[in-house]
Amino acid sequence: MSRSLAADPATRAGLEPQVEATAPTPGPRLGVDVRRLSRFFLRRPGLLLSLIVVALVALAAFWPTLFTGRDPLLGVPADNFQPPSARHWFGTDELGRDTYSRVVHGAALSLKATLIAVAVAFVVGGALGLVAGFVGRWVEDVLMRFVDVLLSIPALFLSLALVTALGYGTVKVAVAVGIASVASFARVMRAEVLRVRQAVFVEAARSSGTRWYSVLGRHVLPNATGPVIVLATLDFGTAVLAVSSLSFLGYGAAPPAPEWGTLVSDGRNYLANAWWLSTLPGLTVAATVLATNRIARALDGEWANQR
Amino acid sequence: MTDHRTDSHGRTDSHGDADSHDDTSADGAGGIPTDGHSGDHDGGRNSDHCGDHGGTGAGLLAIRGLSVSYRTRTGPLPAVRGVDLDVEPGEIVALVGESGSGKSTLAHAIVGLLPAGGHIDAGSVRFGGHDLAALSERELRAIRGARIGLVPQDPTVSLNPVKRIGVQVAEVLRIHRLATRRSAPLEAVALLERAGLAEPEIRARQYPHELSGGMRQRALIAIAIAAQPKMIIADEPTSALDVTVQRLILDHIQHLADEFGTAVLLVTHDLGVAADRAQRIAVMSQGRIVESGPTAQILDSPRDPYTQRLLRSAPSLTVVHTAHTVPRARTSPSVAVEPSVVAEQSLVVVDNLVKEFPLPRTAGGSARTLRAVSDVSFTVNRHETLALVGESGSGKSTTARLVLRLVDSTAGRIVLDGDDVTAARGARLRRLRRQAQIIYQNPYASLDPRFSIKEVITEPLRAFGVGDRASRTARARDLLDRVALPASVLERRPAELSGGQRQRVAIARALALAPQLVVCDEPVSALDASVQAQVLELLAELQADTGVAYLFISHDLAVVRQIAHRVAVMRAGQIVETGPTDDLFTSPRHEYTRALLEAIPRWSQQRQAAASPSSGRTPSAKA
Amino acid sequence: MRRYVIRRLAQAVGVLWAAYTLSFLVLDYLPGDPVSAMAGAGMDSSVVDPARLDELKKQYGFDKPVLVQYVDYLSRALRGDFGNSVSTGRSVTSVIADALPQTLQLTGMALLLATLFGGGLALFATYTSQRWLRQILLSLPSLGVSIPTFWIGLMIVQLFSFRIRLFPAFGNDGLRGLILPAVTLAIPTGAMVAQLLAKSLLTTLDEPYVQTARAKGAGRARIHLGHALRNASLPALTIIGLLVGQLMANAVVIETVFARNGLGRVTAAAVSIQDIPVVQGVVVFGALVFVLVNLVVDLIYPLLDPRIVVAATARRSPA
């Protein structure tokens, strides 16, 4: 990730001198890259902040104890409805549980659900698109009509239908959310495969005797996955939102377990007297989604420049 | 012809005058009537000039010390550096340079239409008593369209796709209040007629996509001349058009300039076009004007080395120097191609080849097909170059791809090296792949951006399992040497190389398996003029060394003349004429071949016809 | 043209049929035992009488092979009969028909707000020549699509109902009750409209024909409104079906947040008690709306873009 970002100014520099078309001389790359990298991020403080937010969320998901020593499930009834303070950063809920520690521990469930959702969409959608784009003919027609049908059902409705069929729970919600975004992955993957397959360099490889599986593995896949990875980053944010929406509606983890959407939902009942209960977990969700979307945009720009 | 034009001019002019007197405050409009009434162009031009901006003394346009740069992340990138340029009233000045020389930037900077990030750093653009470089956006708008017209580069994308042609022409008149809502549509039709469009009433009601490229360019010319500007900037006005259309468009621009005394700044990469049309030429390189002067002087005694180089390699002028290069490229193969042994020598025999593409059903119609290649037969001999010449859409590239079996033919027969490969599959198809390679038009697209140059060149070797890793690398090094690239590029990526270098890499890849046939699909048309000549020479040298045969696809007769032994001219999917190169150029039999030859700028034809370069003959004298 | 209309209609029917089939597979086939789920749904206790189970199985046809069930269901669905709600026993069609007007009001209002404000934002952001203002305006939509809808709703309720008591927090009463949920619902959709239109406008403003217009001496407003907007809104038009679908889906969340009656509430409730016929009815209804909106867009598109008939035929010709 950081490597590809570092390549950004380098590729730009390679593209821009229109006046002289001489090849750049190979220089001491490492030193240049570190300087370029720092300049790249200094110019984009938002991107830097986004990376930090995502890193913090990932850390919280795997090592929640790094951030808080409190038990998310254990409440101190005497301390209920405490507003945010130095002791309780995000305040406490109706049972006196520390909201901050619930948010930190909730990261694990929410992140897990999100990753499953993105993985399902990426693998299933990517495979559909790859097969459709590379095989073509009737296979493509059948697969893409199927994708059209998936697209015709609003994503949340499709997820709700799947939840109805599969039942409640974090993993089931995640699978439901992932399947709902299979269609967009399939579409992007197919479009990319078609674009690359029609590229002159692929025909050049074919005409110089390269066999179809080498063309697929060495030319088509490496050149087609870029935009799909960007989509995956973008879908990460969408999945966080969808998963938290479903758990807000109450189809996620069972009650005592903390999950971001559930936390917001629980706080609803105390909107009038304990604003922090809904507000702060919601802010966390918003910050995470904003951060991943910002990173997706940076990747997108970088890919666009590389072409 | 001339009568008709002046007639239409007179008629529309009276409209224009009436309106401009009614409701305009622009001083430019005052000059127009005198211009319109005067029969004598030169007189009209001069009086117009004096009356309009008397006192300044200088010409119509005077650029002094103009510098333009683009803002980039790595800092400002200068595109135009301290340029001086003058255009007199009624004069055609050509601004010549290769891509990236800053010529288009300079042209756009005049009217303040620089792309995003572009900025005028220094200098002045005097035009009609104003310094355009110092004017505000609002003030510039009164100049654009009204006093300076612009004919853009690519007519296919320069008209708004959702508006009718007539509306787009009329818009200029409405913006500058030269016509009322009622009169504008009528005037637009008259302008379209003046721009040389047949059936202007119908064209005015059509949308851009319903018109051909040439017709769209005429519509854009109508827009440029609508307000009878003092000057037209034509930015490569024909480079996106077919050669036969190019000449008509340029003729028409020249005609209009003569008729109305409009000055033209003609931006072009083609010195031949410039030589044909311009009274003066300014040569631009790396953001500077390296040389400028009367056309004859630039062509006959260029002082700057860059001009000399450009002159030697100008696309439509290469015929001049083929006399020197062709014999060398031809010596060895021509010995081999004795008429008696031709039969055994034929490498590729194509018989009655047909390719049809299905067209989608249109409303009410049954399924139709497009016959891209129709009953084409030809032979490519060993060690020989056969050129397939035609305009875009003539089916020449499809033919090449049929020969390589990259697409399958509808009917006909293809024999390669005695083996009928028309429907070859499996092992026989792989034998074809090994013997026949291709070099593409665009070296930016034909190399996988993720591959290193070594991987690109060794890919055919890997595909056929030739040698081990080390020997393949050695072969790549050897091939790079042959195409005159240093071994140090082996580890580079295509993006790090220039266009010419990439095309050399593509050539190296095509030669890696030592094929008998290489199809060259417009191999130089994406390259700059000076690079073109080098790559052509390289191809000729490699043929002399390896004995490879070329099937050379091109739209450019001048290039073909330099490299081909025999030429087949294609039009609408059919070969209309085939013959040895010299015969075809000196005595073309088919009228289409003659039309193609005529489309080569006249100046170079004169040069070629005359034993020694004639001096002082300007195109207008010839015309 | 007639051929074009007929082909589009046939496509729409095909998609609808496939959507129904898909919902059948997911909802009636995927759950191991839909009947016991349904039986559990209708009752208070988890103990289900076996006799009642058998009765239900017969009633819903689950004792027959899947294919027979499918044909049976499809033929009934074609007659507009999607079965009866498990919990209330009312027909699914009437359940949806009763809840629809409230949701139509909400989504219609939200779509109006989203188009007006999203489109206006995109136009103004690309029009202004102030760099900083443009930067700020263009970053707003990405904020809008990143914030969870339900959270926006809660924040708005907190601010306008509990703090300044301007609008009612909950319920269906009239226009005043409509404003907060409609604004909430409009935010993500409006942000999407703004993002798409702004991107499209910026691309369009770089087109050579815009340069031609500038070379004519046209002013900024003429270029923006006269040349760029129409070309730029064409791609935005193609996603309107997706937007309407998204609005309906988000209504599920918003109606829950604001405790409004409507299709969304019905859906959420049906999912909670696994009322399969109702969920299936809503899913198919969602597909129907999507297909209808797209059909309308397809039919008016050629009127807005003169190239479209050509483009539709060119898409399949060889490159």
TrEMBL record, chain A:
Residues 107-296 form the ABC transmembrane type-1 domain. Residues 1-27 are annotated as: Disordered. Pfam families: BPD_transp_1. It is a multi-pass membrane protein. InterPro entries: BP-dependent_transpt_permease, MetI-like, MetI-like_sf. The chain crosses the membrane at residues 46-66, 113-135, 142-163, 169-188, 228-254, 274-292. The keyword Cytoplasm does not apply. It is found in: Cell membrane. CDD domains: TM_PBP2. This is Peptide ABC transporter permease. It comes from Protofrankia coriariae.
TrEMBL record, chain C:
Keywords: Cell membrane, Membrane, Transmembrane, Transmembrane helix, Transport. Residues 100-301 form the ABC transmembrane type-1 domain. PROSITE patterns: ABC_TM1 (PS50928). The keyword S-adenosyl-L-methionine does not apply. It is found in: Cell membrane. InterPro entries: BPD_transp_1_N (IPR045621), MetI-like (IPR000515), MetI-like_sf (IPR035906). SUPFAM superfamilies: MetI-like. It is a multi-pass membrane protein. It holds the Pfam family BPD_transp_1_N. The chain crosses the membrane at residues 12-30, 104-124, 136-158, 178-198, 232-258, 278-297. Belongs to the binding-protein-dependent transport system permease family. This is Peptide ABC transporter permease. It comes from Protofrankia coriariae. The lineage of its organism: Bacteria, Bacillati, Actinomycetota, Actinomycetes, Frankiales.
